[in-house]
# Entry
Amino acid sequence: MLYDRPYMRHSTSETGPQKASMVTQLIAITVAVFVLQQVMNVFFPGIGGRDNRFLSEWFALSGQNFRELKVWTILSYGFLHSTAGFFHIFGNMLGLFFIGRIIEPLIGRERFLGLYLGGALIGGLVYLCFHFSGSGPVVGASASVMGILAFFCLLYPEQPITLLLFFVLPITVKPKWVFWGSLAISAGGVLFYELPGHSYVAHSAHLGGMLAGILYYRYIHNRSIPFATSSRPRASVELPDWFKRKQKTSRDTSYKVNRRSRDELQKEVDRILDKINASGFGSLTVDEKQTLDRAKDTLNR
# Structure
């Protein structure tokens, strides 16, 4: 029953080369676009030696572009970056790499892409709410990165992480404080810097990206409130009492899957198999692999 599925019949080494992760593909596309921007600035400069404005006029997000029905800019701006400095794209790609490689195996390639693009989409919409009638164009993957950052912080609020402050000073902090700090900075930046016109940072897009991460966590990932643990039942395997008393192994040992019903067990198995289909067998935890092995006999009875 379980091993009838194609990806359960073969090991990962027999299925051929795996596709590059979605994180790798997004980084490659974004860096390639950045290189294209630089090439166009060098070989096709604008009037007076300024930057070539072709890509920004057709793919950057602004109220004017949106009023001209360039609706694709609500997503395409996330793949452009400022060519004035390297740190704009470097910071975004660094965040995408370190956070994305943790999140993608948990939710799969397709959902990770949806979360990433959703951050750009909602970030762009929030930006337009404040700048539909004016202001310059906005570019950058910051809204998307803020979306996956918010999701990570909501998923692991109490797990300590170590960050390099200014890429030099290591500090250990809980993700929930990173979440609230980022939210406060973005909201304060909108009110006190962006709206008065004192900043060129699109804090509103960052705020929209975080909103996308919150919505994904609450209404798509596990339909729970922020920082609440999931109410979804988890598989728990317990050894028989006689085995615990004797403290020895045996080939005749039987395992009891602590499940309220076969339906709940089937749902957990289907979730694990969907995870394999999306991210490969290597993405499973030890408990998930054990659940598959032990559920095979239970569900075939």
